[in-house]
């Protein structure tokens, strides 16, 4: 059916994202020894400099916010939880657990379509490196015929995020003996390049479901959304048409014509604060001069105008919903 083709085009975007990440790793932009385990050999080709730079800026920007969240949790004397939705082949869990903030997580939960979680669970089981970081082999369990994976901290669960969370995500998080997600720990919700593929109504219900889940606890809630926006200007329309030609539409981007509108993703749910920055502004202002210098030596990038035009249509939005007990949680978040 058409709906099935559209979903398969959406899932295919993960193969693109992982291939782009591997390309920027191989060019020296990003360190990540885990991503190659998730990229099929057929997708190993190098990407153009513009894609590598975009992948680098996006990844650094989100890593900075995630690191800041883990630091804030530590200041409160708590471990943190992360729920990454539409996680695809993302490697962030393994990078955190082998980096300077290792041991700071109480739970890391990834959600994606069953087809994607099944592939990822198989890739994890095949890799000694990835499994070794999850725990002892007897603590790593494939469930439901291999579409879900559980380990002491890391969990991979299948769900279609467009469906009512109370019927899908809710039962999946409650599945084992005790809930996978405590409402009493500082928890970060991550949507890296996924809400654009969903209707605004479905995204609204999803975020609101988490707000209600945490309204019964003491854990402050943080959220990060990375997405394309601004489809109504001429360049945005061209980018959207290119995606449509590959069967991908972006219903979730429609209510966000400009960067000023993006914080509403969180503010409409009563978040205490929210900010958004385009990748263009992050590249210009937030990448240190020594990093900028290092990056500039990796590849020739002569189309700076085009780069800025493209990066100006992608943004990272982040927000926090504080609870009374977490009044020490302040800037930089
Ligand atoms: N977050 C990863 C990253 O940034 O590298 C992957 C991004 S990829 C562009 C989008 C991912 O979202 C895909 O893995 C896709 O299967 C997933 N996705 C899109 N719509 C979804 C839905 N309704 N339910 C679950 N997953 C979804």
Automatic annotation (TrEMBL):
Belongs to the methyltransferase superfamily. LCMT family. PANTHER family: LEUCINE CARBOXYL METHYLTRANSFERASE, LEUCINE CARBOXYL METHYLTRANSFERASE 1. GO terms for biological process: methylation. Methylates the carboxyl group of the C-terminal leucine residue of protein phosphatase 2A catalytic subunits to form alpha-leucine ester residues. GO terms for molecular function: protein C-terminal leucine carboxyl O-methyltransferase activity. InterPro entries: LCMT1, Ppm1/Ppm2/Tcmp, SAM-dependent_MTases_sf. This is Leucine carboxyl methyltransferase 1. Its EC number is 2.1.1.233. Keywords: Methyltransferase, S-adenosyl-L-methionine, Transferase. It comes from the Eukaryota. It catalyses: [phosphatase 2A protein]-C-terminal L-leucine + S-adenosyl-L-methionine = [phosphatase 2A protein]-C-terminal L-leucine methyl ester + S-adenosyl-L-homocysteine. It is an enzyme of class 2 (transferase). Pfam families: LCM. S-adenosyl-L-methionine binds at residues 58, 86, 160-161, 192. It comes from Heliocybe sulcata.
